[in-house]
Amino acid sequence: MGVEPARLLFRTTSLPTFLPVLLLQRHWMKRRGEKWSRKGMRVFNSKLDGSFREARLLHFKAEEIERKFIRFQNKVAERERRQAESHSRALIRAERKGRRTIAAELARRDTLFDVEFRSFKDAQDYVGDFRECRGSAESMVPPIEGMIRELWEPIEVSEDTMEVGTDAADEGGEVDQPADSFGVSMSGYLDLDI
Question: Which chain positions lie within coiled-coil regions (predicted)?
């Protein structure tokens, strides 16, 4: 019996001294853990709030950049549309100007052709039908030879003119040779006495 009460005595005496320490220690650990967990939660919440704010700010900046990009795209599209319109207007103006230039050139060529054709027709009417003239050039040679012979026939001299001696022929007084239409003989001397 002596062993058991000693053990029990030890328990009864040691329990009241250790129990409050353990309880206090547990309570202190619990409070300390709660404090640290609250601090951790605060840090986590502040980080979460900061990252949320940062995410919202980045989202806002991204939306702003997207709006600017859309505005820039609209400006570029509008500028391209205006350039295309002005280019098409310039092409239309150039085409109209080209048509006017072509029409003016065609009118000029038409009048030039009319003038040339009219002069050609006048010349054709003046000459006559050239198909009727074929072979007639050979027939015109004898009359031309006859006209040449007539020119070389001796000129009749009247009796009241003086007879020219042989020495006068050297000075340009030709006899029996007609002068041409300019008054110059075939030998090159002037015949002013005819």
Answer: 62-97
Alpha helices in 128-173 (DSSP H): 136-139, 141-152
Question: Amino acid letter at 69?
Answer: F
Confidence of residue 133 (pLDDT cuts 50, 70, 90): low
Residue 79: domain span: 20-126
> Using CA atoms, how far apart are residues 50 and 56, in angstroms rounded to an integer?
10
* DSSP secondary structure of 49-115: HHHHHHHHHHHHHHHHHHHHHHHHHHHHHHHHHHHHHHHHHHHHHHHHHHHHHHHHHHHHHHHHHHH
108 belongs to a structural domain: yes
Would you say residue 48 lies in a domain? yes
Residue 53's pLDDT band, with cuts at 50, 70 and 90, is: confident
pLDDT 10s digits, 58-75: 889 999 999 999 999 999
